[in-house]
Amino acid sequence: MDDEKLLQTTLTGEVVQPIRLYYQIVDKKRLIDSFKQLRCMDFDRVNNRWVWLYSHESTVLKFKKSYSSIPKEAHPIVIGSFFLRSGDELLLDLRSFDRAIEAVPFFDKYVGQTAARVTHAAVVNRLFDAKEQFPPNLDVFFYSGEMVERDTDKRAPEVEKFPVHFYEDGIGSLKTTLRIRQIMAFQHWKGNTDYTLLDVIKTTISGKG
């Protein structure tokens, strides 16, 4: 059908679902020095951001499309954007949950907790049509008054912020949190708008998912 919606995906093949990771800067000089040493990082003066590229050190990361399967003319691909805010806040904007799951351990390895520590994540609990476009940063979602802190509401707001316990629990906790929300978003995309996080959990436990 001509009017059928097409799901938006990234150049590396994942479904687009914006996420912002919040870092507390521990040592700004160490942080910038670490970025400068990584060949997959580059400073974008036009947009005042550090871009994380799918190149060099990051080519080993697992996305839907491998580095070698993507045409050379499509490179370099920006897989994340870092923004330094006032004070000790560092933001990492990503277009997919998969990229966030790869980003947290990647930067823990190459930058380390002595430079910056991930503290929170904010997510958009919906999927997007292929025609929708985003600016270089994702403030349009995450500086919105609509963003709420996670609570016990199983219906989940469209824009939601919650703590990340990577240093205590590893990446598994964040991965599970994001996967549950992505399943819910898929159901909403298909028209099942009453589908909740609790429904995801019940389906997973029953083995029907």
What does this structure look like?
Helix content is 29%, strand content 22%. With 209 residues, it is α+β, with helices and mostly antiparallel strands. It has one domain. Strands 2-3-4-5-1-6-8-7 form an 8-stranded mixed β-sheet, with helices on one face. α5 packs across α6 (197-206). The mean pLDDT is 91.
Entry summary:
The chain has six helices and eight strands; from the N terminus they run βαββββαβαββααα.
Task: Kindly give the count of domains.
Answer: 1
Any low-confidence stretches, pLDDT <50, length ≥5?
none
Largest sheet: 8 strands, mixed
Helix tally equals: 6
Rg to the nearest angstrom? 17 Å
Helix content: 25-40%
Instruction: Report the portion of residues in β strands.
Output: 15-25%
Distance between the termini: 28 Å
Q: What general form does the structure show?
A: globular
Mean pLDDT: 91
Count the strands? 8
Series of secondary-structure elements, N-terminal to C-terminal: EHEEEEHEHEEHHH
Helix/strand-derived class? alpha+beta
- Which sequence of strands runs across the widest sheet? 2-3-4-5-1-6-8-7
State the main characteristics:
alpha+beta, 29% helix
Layout: helices, strands, pairs:
Elements: E1 19-25, H1 28-37, E2 41-44, E3 49-53, E4 78-84, E5 89-94, H2 97-110, E6 116-124, H3 139-142, E7 148-149, E8 159-163, H4 166-169, H5 171-189, H6 197-206
Parallel strand pairs: 7-8
Antiparallel strand pairs: 1-5, 1-6, 2-3, 3-4, 4-5, 6-8
Helix pairs in contact: 2-5, 5-6
